[in-house]
Specification:
With about 450 residues, the chain is α/β, with parallel strands linked by helices. The chain has 17 helices and 17 strands. The longest helix is centred in the first third of the chain and has 24 residues.
Length: about 450
């Protein structure tokens, strides 16, 4: 089974649709020991095919538009947060305390891009808030990697010990992850079939998500990539954050293209959220499993209040197993699952050429939402789709992805970059990787400052 066949099957797609997809292979794109390029191409291709399928349905067309996946566009999009420039300034990707550290017996990787994660890391090590890198290195060097992992996790921070692929396979979380499908899909109720307004088949641009309202409750990076893709395809995407958790400015600029951005306290602003939910079509969440349940945001609770809703969830480790409630990020999943050893060694860990787990999972999540909308048009029902970075990592490392054909050469990202003015300044950003005949070539609006919109639909 090819990678795209597997990804499309995971979304529940009709195998006959795959005949509408063509690829442009480019050697040198996303170079790695693991088959990153095949995974990236498949995730984007499955998402684009889901978009084309929904566009055909809404436009009353018998044939799905042709989909074209170019490795150059995919590789560029998978580096979007690194290639972004605002007024010519390069982005800040990782903070000083987000890195690998030597421990008494190996390596540990920490994530401390956000101030609250940095504070928890330092607190776990008994260090003050202004502790320099050298002091952090000294404290971690005194502990084993597993001791550091548990101490930081216990303080609410983020640290993961470096594991070999064999060590990860022996971990109980790995068994839980491997037992799940790449994309978990469930029907939540018997809501009637969704009737979407038809698209004009003669329109210059087909927007399969036009008229749909998406509540974006996601952060870093897979969830925002998914909702950025839905915004590209015409959805009205409103990102909602807690007022006390500001997003990193460069990350917001990259993944906020096409969206609006508001802040809302889900406790004090419960009535406002319920008003948003009443006319939402899709809710996407990207927090650790269960973290939002106390606000009434569990999938079935949402569907009870808004029948016909599509609920999409993404997490680092999955909503199951001993690590199901843990926080995590792409870089940490790479370290836990053996990817960092495969791309480097146990003596000097490496990394994938891009945050491919985040981006790949994000495109699959968007594709799962689009397929759920298509299925609802025929069978009804509120829908749940759920993905995990660790499950995408399992696919990358399980040996089923074959080596990609070289094809043409990837000479760099320039051909797939665009510039645009925005309220944030002059942007250089990656062009969309999702492409189908008659589909959009870019986003309808630039990113806006974080939290600058009202928490309401237009």
């Amino acid at each position: 089974m090819t990678a795209i066949t597997y990804a499309w099957s995971a979304l529940g797609g009709d195998p006959a649709r795959l005949a509408r997809l063509t690829t442009v292979a480019r050697g040198g794109a996303l170079p790695a020991r693991l088959p990153v390029r095949q995974l990236a191409r498949a995730c984007v291709g499955a998402c684009a095919l889901a978009a084309a399928e929904l566009a055909a349905h809404r436009a009353g067309r018998a044939e799905v538009p042709g989909v074209r996946v170019d490795d150059g566009a995919v590789a560029t999009a998978f580096h979007s947060e690194r290639l972004l420039q605002v007024d010519g300034r390069a982005p800040v990707v990782f903070a000083p305390l987000s890195r690998f550290w030597r421990t008494a017996d190996g390596w540990v990787r920490t994530h401390a891009n956000y101030p609250h994660h940095r504070d928890r890391l330092l607190g776990a090590l008994g260090l003050p808030a202004d502790a320099p890198v050298q002091e952090v290195a000294g404290r971690l060097a005194e502990r084993s990697a597993r001791e550091a992992e548990e101490a930081v996790h216990g303080a609410g921070g983020l640290a993961v010990a470096l594991r070999t692929p064999q060590e990860w396979r022996a971990h109980p979380q790995a068994a839980e992850v491997a037992a799940r499908p790449l994309v978990e899909r469930a029907r939540l109720d018997a809501a009637p079939a969704r009737v979407l307004p038809p698209l004009d088949p003669a329109a210059a641009v087909l927007l399969p998500a036009a008229g749909l309202r998406v509540l974006d409750l996601t952060r870093v990076l897979a969830g925002p990539v998914a909702t950025r893709t839905l915004a590209l395809l015409g959805a009205d995407v409103l990102r909602v954050d807690a007022p006390w958790l500001p997003e990193l400015p460069d990350q917001h600029a990259d993944t906020g293209i096409g969206k609006r951005s508001a802040t809302l306290d889900l406790t004090a602003g419960r009535d406002t959220f319920e008003e948003l939910l009443r006319s939402a079509d899709v809710v996407v969440t990207g927090y650790r499993p269960g973290a939002l349940d106390r606000f009434g945001l569990a999938p079935r609770a949402l569907a009870e209040r808004r029948p016909g809703l599509v609920v999409a969830q993404v997490s680092a480790w999955g909503a199951y197993g001993p690590w199901g409630g843990r926080r995590g990020f792409d870089s940490l999943v790479q370290v836990a699952t053996g990817i960092a050893v495969t791309e480097g060694s146990a003596q000097r860990p490496g990394a994938l050429p891009a945050q491919a787990l985040d981006h790949g999972t994000g495109y699959l999540l968007a594709g799962a939402v689009l397929r759920a909308l298509t299925e609802q048009a025929h069978d009804g029902g509120s829908r749940l789709v759920r993905l995990a970075l660790a499950r995408t990592a399992h696919w990358l490392t399980d040996g089923t992805l074959s080596t990609a054909a070289e094809g043409a050469s990837y000479a760099g990202p320039d051909a797939w970059l665009a510039e645009a003015d925005s309220p944030l300044g002059r942007l250089r950003h990656a062009r969309p990787a999702v492409s189908f005949t008659g589909g959009p070539a870019g986003w309808a609006r630039p990113p806006v400052p974080w939290g600058s919109d009202r928490a309401e639909w237009r």
